[in-house]
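hi!! sorry for the late reply, been swamped w classes. u asked for the two structures so here they r. pasted raw, havent cleaned anything up. first the sequence of the first protein and right below it the tokens
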Amino acid sequence: MFQSKKRKTLEGVIRQIQVDLANNYKDNAVENLKRLKSETEACEAAGELKEKEIRELRSLIEHYENDVKNFKRTY
């Protein structure tokens, strides 16, 4: 998906959000989602992302926000 070191950092955050949601770690998912948003905004402001990548990240962020909003504990 991404090539640069900064973009690899974004991929790492995305993977961590997926793990957090899969393991019912809502608080961690929320914190990592905030991190993903701020990293994305910083990369966008610095011109480090292409428009297509920005759209993909915004779509992912929206998807994860809905997942967190609809999160239900299973215990």
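now the second protein. again sequence first, tokens right under
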Amino acid sequence: MRKTRKGYPVYPLTVAQKFHFYYMDFCPKKEVLNIGTSLTIGADLDFDLLRKAIGEAYERCECLKVQFFKDKDGTWYQYVCQEAAMEIGSEDFSGTTMEEAEAELQSWTQVPFTKEDAPMSRIVMIHMPDGYQGVYFLVDHRIMDAQSMICFLKDIIEIYCHNMYEGVAYPKEMSSYIEQVKKDLAYEAESKAKQKDEAFFQQLIEASEPIYNGIDGPGRLEAERKASGNPDARAAVNVSDSVDSALDVFHLEEEPTRRLMDFCETYHVSLVCLLMMGLRTYFQKMNHNDDVSITTTIARRGTLKEKKSGGTRIHSFPFRTIISEDKTFLEGIYEIRDRQNEYFRHANYDPVAYFAHQSKVWNKSPGRVYEPMSLTYQPMSMRDKELQKLGDIKYKTKWYPNGATTQAMYLTVMHRPEDNGLDFSFEHQVKAVSRKQLEYLYYYLCRIMFKGAENPNLTIGEIMKLV
């Protein structure tokens, strides 16, 4: 491995980054790695001060200067290019319609970052047709995840407010991205922690074989059994022959969201436990099966340094629960919470190694899965304390689809900054899952969660009958 590039120290990829490179390699649409979002505020902004704030936030954010290159042997490496400057664009959409403006922002989100030794992000100051002003930000998933993006955008807001208004403190320093990379690489070098995590997950995998549950019921699994001639097959093909995707978003209002959050507070569980319980109960109902697996994502940002270091730190693992219908809703949730806490302790493990071991142990054919979907809950919101100091200023965020996904269905649940209600964003392959199927799933997911939150001591079987 070469030691420097353009005079800067070179580092191998982390496990989280390798995962993105892995699916980018076989996805025909390289924009699959793009994440695009806008943050706009219902006030006249000073664009010169905003440009200055963006520049300062960029200087403080080490991961945005990361660039990649491929060595002669085809191995990818990364380095922080300190001289790289962020180009700050400006676009006035005030003479167009909201539909036209958002279509343009979506089209920007579908342009991939494919060059080596080049910046992996883009930012544009925008003036929207509804009078809101702010920024559009596009970044490659290999250098940032949603939490990093939110952290960077909040930094811009705080710096802008500090420069614009008296009495607003300058935000605290960001953390070093490379420091966290070095920690991840030290873990990978056969550390004792890695060996413990590997033992945990291998034991979990080897206990027994999971089983696939479909969004409409066991139809896909039955088709797989028929096609393969194996009546005992437990995995199925979940994706279509096209990576073209759509993003369907369902909005849960502020008041019902508050009821779910109150339930979580009362019983000392996270919202992700309630979401997971709702989803697995839906699949249990549709497939008449107590054994349900759903892919869960873990942000790996337990410390303040990890929270403020940027980068991409998400690891995804299958999350399997076997919960019988005679257990109460609350017992099910506690089982999920306990298993999740175990996962958190071992979450630095390589998800690609997990899937490789699972395939080997259960002789799983390529392309077959046990999990019908992935779930991410994003607790971090762009509701910023500095904005709240300025009185009742309205602001909006919007995430733009990149138009491609290698998964059949991926649900991200986030809080809206306007009212703290929940947005359920389903990114899905158009040919694998329809909007109608998602409406059905969302409707029953909400019914299950509210029925369970209102009657936590009802059994799962009773809740399934009542909804």
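hope this helps!! also noticed smth abt the second:
The two ends are 58 Å apart (CA to CA).
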